[in-house]
Design goal:
The protein contains 1 helix and 4 strands. With 66 residues, it is of the alpha+beta class. It has one domain. The strands form 2 sheets. Strands 1-2 form a two-stranded antiparallel sheet. A two-stranded antiparallel ribbon has the order 3-4. The two termini are 21 Å apart.
């Protein structure tokens, strides 16, 4: 939470090891994805890209459809 706290509830929310990035506009969405990935990389976190889903209009998060 500390790493991305400046952006919490602006374009992302997280819970345990899940990060949900959202924006209505595709250009901003891509920008936010890059920002989060760069922040995670800088602190030594690596992601498994195959576990991610991009450009979803809705998804299940913490047993809620959003």
């Amino acid at each position: 939470n500390n790493i991305l706290e400046n952006y919490l509830n602006i374009f992302h929310t997280d819970y345990l090891n899940n990060i949900l990035i959202y924006n209505y506009f595709q250009i901003k969405y891509i920008k936010y994805i890059r920002l989060v990935f760069i922040k995670l990389y800088k602190i030594g976190f690596f992601i498994k890209i195959l576990k991610y889903k991009f450009f979803m209009s809705e998804t299940k998060f913490l047993d809620w459809i959003i």
